[in-house]
Amino acid sequence: MGGTRGYDIFPRTFKARVLLALAFLGGIATIGGYFAAFFSMASEGFFQVPPCSGSERSACLEEQTELLPDSQASCAGSGPRVCFVPLGQVDPDLVRDLAEYYRDEYGLEIGVLTPSAVPAERIDAQRGQIEGVALAGYLKTLFPEDVADPDVTLIGLTPLDMFASAERSWRFALGCIYWSDRQSRAVVSTYRMHLGSSGLVDAERVEERTRKLVTKYLGRLHYGIFPSNNPTSPMYDNILSVSDLDRMREPLAVP
Asked: How far apart (Å, rounded) are the C-alpha atoms in residues 11 and 189?
């Protein structure tokens, strides 16, 4: 009996070798396609970060001076009323568009208070984010009389990335609502409103998402509407990401 040939991973016929070579080239082409898609996504903004990230964060702490002509020193008036508080370099067009929307859709006149800077020491050094509860407390420092007025609801708007509080382990928060002793205030971050599945979304989507969260806070603080378990409701109570905001439907049914 002749000696054995042993285990051979290469085909023994010419046809089989040709097929193996074609399969190998096909695999190389497929891998190349994955790399091309990867670099294409990178060039199209898949790895873009929202405004006010990294080195841009410091400049975003400054007050938004473009809103000074539209602003007022206090949320003056009588009866239940609402005012926005620009905190840092929030988009001025977004603030103006929000105020216009609530006037046209709900007949609600929302004032814009004097834009304020965000102190650098309020940014958590390890996280690179600002604490939502602390930022809501900062409103009391800026406008103590308005915060003390039970008829006033203040909603801060900031472009800075936010987390809820040190007591909660959440990676981020889109907003934070706070009320105590009849003091109604909330803060909304536009930072993650920019995020999409394949890059940053356009300004219209950012405004829509921001508006939906503001509407929820207005429903709770100004109109006294209870939260909802319906994911499409403007009062949906389990918002975990911008995808949840995208599913919510407007307008809010107000008294």
From this structure: 62
